[in-house]
Amino acid sequence: MTDLNLQPTSRVALSFLKDRVTHFKIGIIANEEWVTRYIDQDFHKQFRMMKSTYWVLVDTVRPYYPVKCQRGDAPLVTVEKAVLMTLCYLGKHLPLSDIGDRFAVAQSTVFKEARTIIHILCDLKDTFIVWPKKSECVVLSRQFEARAGFPGVIGAIDGCHIEVIPPANQQSSYADRKCNYSITLQGISTAKTIFTNVSIGTPGSGNDARVLKYSSVYRTIMRDGVESMFFNDNYHLIGDKAYPNRMWCMAPFKDFGNLTPRQRTYNYHHSSTRIVIEHTFGLMKGRWKRLMKVNTEIAKVSDIVLAICVLHNFCYLHNDEVTQKMIRDKRHMPNQHVPNNYADEASKMQGAEKRNRIVCLF
């Protein structure tokens, strides 16, 4: 029977079937050959990145992946399969047993291989999470200024909470202000939503000022001076009211109902610029669902979060962006005001003077 002998409705149905995209479905995965059979859309959905990005990641990890010896009849887990299992673990909030079933390996194998890849990613943090060089600051500040006209910004800083299972004897330390148990991730990002610094692991009861105080950025400033991180007086971070207003960090004016029109305009441009860090957290949480709640022992949580931060940058550096379908849970913990009692008065005055100069630009 040819198409000419079909009824009109049958012709439409047959034409529709011909035009449909065939989605490869799998039951139990025993090897890596099936990867090439996924269309990009489905691979991205399953493993949170494009196939081309995955292969670059495999080549990046391969030199650090341990050489294994054959034991018995069980096939060795290849680096390709180890990376896939890790992406599945980090990208979806599935139990290890479900991942093991998908890849036809034991739950303990998933745990072991994921830990191996996570450790490798953590070791690569200085390759993919990099503080800007002096020569890069002009471009970074122009990218931020293009958003809302706020000058001199080379990074937006904020903190978010990652839910965890707290140690039984330290639950109060990990209880945040929303009555969840969490640790804090402090991030600094560019206008292109790429992290340039992260600080991970402070128990959720701590505020952003405390997290900042113990971060590598703050310690470097205190030890080597502001110029060691910001090069000259023109550059600074931008943070919300939880952060101190200093030469190196511009905060908004606290609004008690007495702000001048220029100060309110400053706050508007400030907020429109600073929001990029919230977008960064939202994009990362949208892609890597493990961040919804990291239900493993607390000592391993920081490594998992750091590995995800590395993967976030890795994907964006390879133009592998988050799809809108990924972003369904944009929970982000807004900051609360905290007293800035750890900086001296001279630093406060310098920050106030610099902020007033910026106010005059609007």
TrEMBL record:
Location of the DDE Tnp4 domain: 157-313
GO MF annotation terms: hydrolase activity; metal ion binding; nuclease activity
Cellular component GO terms, alphabetical: nucleus
Pfam families: DDE_Tnp_4
Chief location of this protein within or outside the cell: nucleus
InterPro entries (alphabetical): HARBI1-like, HARBI1_dom
Protein's UniProt keywords contain Nuclease: yes
Protein localization: Nucleus
UniProt KW RNA-binding keyword: no
Keywords from the UniProt entry: Hydrolase, Metal-binding, Nuclease, Nucleus
Cofactor field: a divalent metal cation
Similarity section: Belongs to the HARBI1 family.
Protein name as catalogued: DDE Tnp4 domain-containing protein
